[in-house]
Amino acid sequence: VTASIERVVVTLDAASENRAAIDTAARLAARAKAPLHGIFVEDEDLLRLASLPFARQITLGAGAEPFTAEQVELHLQAAAERARQDLSAAATRHAVDCSFEIVRGASEIVLSGVTERDLVVAGALTRPIAGDFRVECRWWSSIEVATGPFLLTRGGWDEVGSVVMLLHDRGPASARLLEALAQVVQARGGALTVICPPAIGGAKDFETWIADQLPAFSVQAKIEVAPAEPAALRRRLGELACRLFAVDAGRSEGHSGRLREYHESFACDILFVR
Amino acid sequence: MTGQTAARVADGTVGSQAAGPSFEFGRPLSPTLLYRRCDPAELPFALCSELEEAPDLIGQERAVEAIRFAMRMRPKGYNVYALGPTGSGRHALVENLLRQQAAGEPTPPDWCYVNNFVDPQKPYCLQLPPGRGAGLAAAMKRLVEELRGALPAAFERDEYRSRREVIDQQFKQRNEAAFGALQKRAQAKGIALLRTPMGLALAPVRDGKVLEPDAFEALPAGERESVQHEIEATQSELEAIMRQVPQWEREHRDAVRDLSRETTGFAIVHLMEEVRAAYADLPDLAKYLDAVEADVKENADDFLAPPAPAADTAGSTPVPAPISTAIEESRFRRYWVNLLVDNGGQRGAPVIYEDNPTHQTLVGRVEHLARFGALVTDFNLLTPGALHRANGGYLILDAPKLLTGNFGWPSLKRALSSGQIRIETLDQLMSVASTVSLAPEPIPLDVKIVLVGPPTLYYLLSANDEEFAELFKIEADFEDRIERTPETTLLYARLICTIGRREKLRPLDRDGVARVIEQASRLAADSGKLSTSMRTFVDLLQEADQIATDSGKDVVGETEVQAAIDAQFRRGDRIYRRLQEEIGRKTIHIETDGAQIGQVNGLSVISLGDLAFGTPTRITAQVRLGRGEVVDIEREVALGGPLHSKGVLILGGFLGGRFGKSRPLSLNASLVFEQSYGGVDGDSASGAELFALLSALAEAPIKQFFAVTGSVDQRGQIQAIGGVNEKIEGFFDSCRITGFTGHQGVIIPASNVKHLMLRHDVVAAVAEGRFAIYPIDTVDQGLELLTGIPAGKLDGDGNYPAGTLNYRIAARLDAFAAKAAELARATSPLGSRP
Q1: Which chain B residues contact residue A133 at CB under 8 A?
Q2: ipTM of this complex prediction, to 2 decimal places
Q3: What is the pLDDT of residue B3?
Q4: Rg of chain A, C-alpha, whole Å
Q5: Residues of B in contact with A132 (CB under 8 A)
Q6: Chain pair A-B, CB pairs under 8 angstroms
Q7: Are residues B197 and A75, on separate chains, in Cβ contact within 8 Å?
Q8: Which of B78, B132, B202, B457 has the most Cβ atoms closer than 10 angstroms to its Cβ?
C-alpha cells in the first residue's frame, strides 16, 4: 500500500503486557507489507538493583525475599523466549516476515537502531500486581527521543471507539503523523476525526491539503475546528469515545505528562510523531 | 404255547385306560389299543373357526389360583415363580392375568432425578403424581432459557453497572491510593518502584537511573546506611500494603457477589414464582426449587457468560459444533430434571416384561458422556431399569435369563429385600470402583415379580438359595398335560381355533382338529392325556397352514396336519434313517428272525434335539462258573449310567431271590449291549437283559423276531418305561427293512399299554397281522413268549416242574454249584477226603 513504512518494530520487555503490542504490530506489518522486528529490552535497572546488597523482591505470596542477579538473568531469559515465541506465532498468523533481537540497557537504546521510516509499537501497560496496580511503563520516556511514529497500544485490536488526531499546522511532522495514522486507521478501520484550531482548520484549502497527504489511503477524515486548549480537548475526546489519539510530540499536547493523562483518562492508544 | 399263556393270564384281564377293549397278558394287543383316535364325528363343528375362543389355558387352574392369590397379597415376599415346561403358555397366561389385575389398579407416580446442589454426586429423587414429571422437566428447561435472557438483561442495566463500577472503583482507588502514596513517598526519598518477575522491588535512584553497585559502594558510609535504611523502611511499608491486598480482593469479591446475588434475586423472583405456583400442591418440590433459586443466585455468572464460540467465528480457533453444544449444556444441566419414569400415558398399574434381565437393565444404569477425552456423568445420565418402569405394578422375568444375566439375580434380590431401587454401577456393586461416580438417592420399590422358569430351576433355588423362599413365596405350577376327556377335547378344539385366529391361519376342519388332538396325546406320551405345550402346537398349525397354502387349499385338513407331522420328523431323522439303513445292511447286527441262546433285542430311545426315536440293540449274555456275580460290561467300561447299573444289579437280586435260596449261585454272568459305542442309561432294558441271562442259563433259544422293553424288579415284575411308542416304531422300522415275517412284534410292560399312540402304519400292520404288541407284567410271561417254553411254577417241595424253563435254570445252577464245590475241594490244601 505504501513504501513509507520500512519496518514495524515492536518493543518488548519483561515488565510489560506484550501480547497486545505484538498482535497490533503484526497486523500493521501485514497491512503495510513490511517486515516485523521485535526488540526485547533486558531492563538494566533490575540488574543493577539485584547487585545491591539490600535488594529484595516483595511478592503477594511470600512477602520480602532475596532478589539476586541470577534470578533476574533467568527471568529475563524466560521472558525474552516467551516474547520471541509470541512474536513468531503472530508473524505466522498474519503471514509477515519477522526478526527478533535482545538488547540490554535503558529504553532509549531501543530507538538507537530505529529510523523515522519505522513504525514503533509498544505496550503501554505493565503487568498488574495486587489487583490493578501497575508500575509506570518504560516507553513513555521514548516520547522525548523517538524520531519516527510511535504507537503506544493499550487495548486489543478490536477495541471500539474513534480515532482522533490533533493537528496544529501543515508542517512535516504533521504530515508524517497524518500518514502514520492513516496506516493504522486503514488497517483497523473506523472513523478519523481531525481536530484543529480555527486558524488552521478554517483555511479553505485545508481539506485539500489533508487529501493530498493521503493519496495512497482510502481514509475519510472528518475535520473539526475546535479549541485546542486542554480542558476543551479533553471534553471532546470523551465525547468522541477516543480509542486512539494521535498528536505531534513536539507540541504542548504531545508532552509526555499530558499524553499520560489522556491515556489514563480515556484508556486510549497514543500515536505520536516528533 | 399261546393257549397256555392265555390260560395263565385269563384271570389277569386288564381294561384299557380309555375304557376301550381289554387285553390279556402275553396276548397280542388289539389294534384299537395301539392308538386312541379322536373321532371327528364327535366334534360338533365343520370348521374350527365356528368355535368360540378358548380360555387362555386349559387345565391350569392350580397355577391361575396361585397367581391370583399372589396378586392380592401385598406383604413383602409374595412374588411368584411360575414353573412349567417351556412352551406351555406360561408367559401368555401370566401376562394376561397381570394385565387384567393391573388395569383396575391405580397408576403409579412419576419419578425424577434432580441435582443435589450440596453434593452433586448424590442426586435426589422426586416423586410426582403420574404425568406431572414431564411438565416439571419442561418447566425447568424453560426456566433456564428464560434466565439466560433475564439475567444478562439485569446485569446490563445501568443500575447494576453503576453499582458495579462503584465497587470496582472503590477497590481500584484503595489499591492505587495505597501503592500510589507509597510510590510518591519513595520517589521523594529517591527510591524507585520496579516491577520484578513476581512482585515489586525498591531501588535507590540517582538521576533517573537505579544506582549502580559501584556507585553505591562509593557513597560515604553514612549515606549508604541512610539509603539502605530508607529502602528497608519503604519495603516494610510495601510489605504491609501487599499483606492487605488479599483482604481487599476478598472484600471486593464479596461486594461483587452480594451485588450479583441481589441483582439475580430481583431478576429471577417472578420466574421462580411461576414454577412454584404450578407445583404448589407438592410440598416436597418447594425444597428443591429453593435450592435451585439459591444456586442460580450463587452462579449467576454462568448465565452471563457468552455462548461458546461458533465454528465460523473470525479470528478464533474453530470449535466443533458438538463441543460448543456440550459446553453450553454443561453450564445448565444441573437445573434440568431427569424424568426417569413417566407414567403420564399409563392407565392403571404397569406390567413390564424384561427379556434381558441383567443388573443394569433391572436397576438402571449410570451412563457417561465422552467430554474432551474423559468420561463424565451427572444425574441426567441416570437411566431407568425394568424395576423403575414396573414400580407400582408387575414385572415378568425369565428365571433362566435372570440367573445367567450379568448380576441380575443378586441385584433383584437386593432390591426386593431392601424395598429400594439403588442405581449403582457394576464397579460399585462389586466394590472395585476407584473412580468417583454417582450414588443416587434410592427409590422406594413396590413391585410384584413373576419369574417364569422350568421346574428344575425352582427346585434348585428352593434348595440352595435361602433368600429365594423369602422373596418368592408363591409357586404357580403349570401342568404339562391334562386329562383327555370329551370336555377337554372340545376345549382343545377351541384352543386350536384360538391359536389359528391369533396367528391368522386358515381354519382347520374337524378331521384336521382331530388329528391335532391325537398328536397332542402322542406328545403327552399317553393316550389318556393331552399335551399343554402350546409352542409345539403353534408350530404344527403354522406348518400345516403353509402346506395348505402350497396346496392351494383354503382349509387345513387331516392330510395337511399329518404332512406337517411327518415333515417335522423327516427334518430331523437323518441319524435315525442312517441307523435303520445300517441295520438293513447288517452293519448293525440285529436279528429279526430265528432264535438264539442268550441274545435278545432290547430297545432304546435316542433324543436328538426335538426328535426322539427308538432303535433296537442286541443284548447278549454269557454265563460261566463263578462266584455269583453279574457283570455289566457297560458299567465296567464306564459307558453305563447309574440307573442302568441299578437295573443290572437288580438282576442279581432276582436270581438270588428265585434260585439262590437252596443253592449257591456259583456263576458269573456278563451282559453287554452289542455294538453300542455311547453311553447307556435308564433301566428300561433290564427286563431284556434278564431274559438274555435266563436264556443263557437255561440254554433256551430266544425268538429273535421279538424285541423287548420294560424294567424288572427283584421279584420279577415287569414295570413301565418311557418312550414306548418310539421304541415299538423303531423295531417296526427295523423289521420292515429286514423283511416282515408275520411273527415279529414287541413285548412291552402291560402298564405301558395306556401310553400307546403308535404311528398309523404300525397300527395298520398289526391289524393286518404283520406285527404284534404283547403286554406282559411278569418275567415268566416274557420268557414263555420269547422261548415258547413254559416258565414253570415252584411246587410245594421247592422244585420246578421238569421241562420248564425255571427247572432248566435251577438245574444249570445246581451243576455250577457242584462243579464249584468239586473245584474247591481239588484246590484245597487238604485235598479231597472220602
Answers
A1: 175-176, 179
A2: 0.85
A3: 34
A4: 19
A5: 171-172, 175-176
A6: 106
A7: yes
A8: B202
Looking at beta carbons, which residues of chain B come within 8 Å of A43?
194
Collect all residues with Cβ–Cβ distance below 8 Å to B701 and sequence separation of at least 6.
B595, B596, B597, B695, B787
Choose between B185 and A228: higher pLDDT. Answer: B185
What's the per-residue H, E or C state across chain A?
Answer: CCCCCCEEEEEEECCECHHHHHHHHHHHHHHHCCCEEEEEEEEHHHHHHHHCCCCEEEECCCEEEECCHHHHHHHHHHHHHHHHHHHHHHHHHHCCCEEEEEEEECCHHHHCCCCCCEEEEEECCECCECCCECCCCHHHHHHHCCCCCEEEECCCCCCCCEEEEECCCCCHHHHHHHHHHHHHHHHHCCCEEEEECHHHHCCCCHHHHHHHHCCCCCCCEEEEECCCCHHHHHHHHHHCCEEEEEEECCCHHHCHHHHHHHHHHHCCEEEEEC
Q: Which of B202, B204, B245 sits opposite A130 (nearest CB)?
A: B245
Mean pLDDT of B421-448: 84
* Distance of alpha carbon B329 from the chain centroid: 40
Arithmetic mean of pLDDT over chain B? 88
Give the three-state DSSP class for B788.
coil
CA gap B564, A60 in Å, rounded: 94
Cβ-proximal residues to A202 (8 Å cutoff; 6+ apart), any chain: A225
| Confidence at residue B831, expressed as pLDDT on a 0 to 100 scale | 53
Chain B residues near any Cβ of chain A (below 8 Å): 171-172, 175-176, 179, 183, 192-204, 209-213, 216, 228, 231-232, 235, 238-239, 241-243, 245-246, 248-249, 252
Measured distance CA(B290)–CA(B209) in Å, rounded: 62
Q: Which of A48, A68, A71, A74 to mutate to test binding with chain B, by most B CBs within 10 Å of its CB?
A: A48
Report the C-alpha gap between B8 and B681 in whole angstroms: 33
pLDDT tens, position by position, B540-567: 999 999 999 999 999 999 999 999 999 9
Catalytic-residue membership of B751: no
pLDDT of residue A228: 66
**CB B735 within 8 Å of CB B729:** no
pLDDT (tens digit per residue) in B722-763: 999 999 999 999 999 999 999 999 999 999 999 999 999 999
A53, B228: Cβ pair inside 8 Å? yes
pLDDT above 60: residue B429 = yes
